[in-house]
Amino acid sequence: MTLVAFVADDFTGATDALWQFRRFGLSGSLVTDVAYLHDRDDVIGVATTARASADPVASALPALRAVAALGPLAVQYKVCSTFDSSPASGSIGAVVAALHREGLARSAVPVLAAQPEFGRYTWFANHFVRAGDEVVRLDRHPPARDHPVTPATEADLRVRLGEQGAGRTGWLPAGASREAYRARGGDAAFVADAMTEEHLRALGALMIADARDLSPLYCVGSGGLSYALASALAANRPLPVGSVVLGAAGPVLVVSGSRSPVTARQIDAAERAGWAVLDAGGPDAIAHAEASLREGRHTIVQSTRGPSRDPAGVGELLGRVAAAAVRAGLVRRLVVAGGDTSGQVVAALGARALDVAGTLAVGGPVCVLAADDPACDGLEVALKGGQVGGEDFFLRAALGTGSARAPVNG
Known about the structure:
The protein has two domains: 230 residues, Rossmann fold (3-Layer(aba) Sandwich), CATH 3.40.50.10840; 148 residues, Molybdenum Cofactor Biosythetic Enzyme, Chain A (3-Layer(aba) Sandwich). The protein is 32% helix and 22% strand. It is built from 13 helices and 18 strands. α7 packs across α8. InterPro entries: 4-carb_acid_sugar_kinase_N, 4-carb_acid_sugar_kinase_N_sf, NBD_C, NBD_C_sf.
C-alpha cells in the first residue's frame, strides 16, 4: 500500500527524498518513468528533470497525477533545500499554481524548504543556509546568490513564490497548533518555518493528520519535508549518519558537471590523494577515462574547474563517458556530481529504477541501479548535488564509508 508518493524536480533530490523515507524503515522505490510505477511499497517516487526546464509543469504534472492514482495519503513535489528555481527555469511557483488550476490541491499547499540536518533553516518565512561556522540568508550565500540559472535574489520564500506565480502565499510559524495550520483559507500556499528536527516532526504530524481528511495532501519541499512525513508515519527512529555502508570498491569513476565551489574542493582533495582528474572538454575524454580506469586509478571527469568549465552539452558528454566505462566492465561504483548532470547520466545508463543502499553524507545517498542492460544492472551510483558533502566525499565513495545501510525492502 502506498502511503506517500513524491515527484522530484531532479535526480539528486529524488535519491535524497527516498533515503529520508527509507531511513525510518519505510519500504520504498524510485523510478525514472511513470510506466514503472507500482503500489508494492510504502513510498514510491518519480525522478524528473523539471528543475532544468523552462516549463516544469509539463515535466512534473503528469507524474503528480500518476502517483496520486495510487491513493497515497500525501504527494510531495520534491525540490532543493536551496529552493533552486526562478520564473524562467524550474519554477516552483508555477507547479503550485498548476496543482490548484488542475483541481489536484484542495487546500493551501504546505511549502517546507528547511532541512536542519543539512544546514538549511527557515524562520519568519526567510530561508537561511549554514556556510562553515556561519548561518547566512539565502540571498547572501554566494553559491545560491550567484547561481547562473536560478540566482537567489530574495530570502523570503513568500516573495519568491509570488514572483513565480504561485498565488497568495502565507506563513506558518514553527510549533503552530493544528488550528493555526488549518486556518489557511484563501492562501494558495504557505511557507512553513523549521529550525530543528523537532520542528519537522511536529509539522509532519500536522500534515499527516490533514492528509487523512484530504487524501491526498499535496505539499512541496526538500528532504526535510520527506523527513517530516516519514517521522509521522513510522514508529522507528531514523538511521544515524556515520557508519560503514558498502566497503571498498574497485576503481571509482566520478563525472561532474557541478558548478559548485564545494565540488571543486572535493575534486582538489581527490587529486591530492592521487586520483586522476580529466577535463570533460578535452579531446578523447572517453578514451582517456577508460585508460585511467584500466590502470586501476580512481578517476574524475569534470567540467567544474579549468578551461572547459560549462562546455555546451556537458551532461550528455558525461553520460557517454559513464555509460562507456560501465559497459566496458571498468567500474561498478559511479559518482555523479550535479543535479542536472545526474538526470542525463542516469538516462544514458538506461535506468528504470533506483533503490537506496546507504548514504555517504546528508543529501548524498548511494543507490543500486536497476536496468535492462546487464552491464548497468546492479551498478552502485551516488548522485550528489553540488553543495553536498565534505571535502572527502569522493574519498569516502571509494572506501564506502558513510551512514548505516537502509532496511532492505520486503
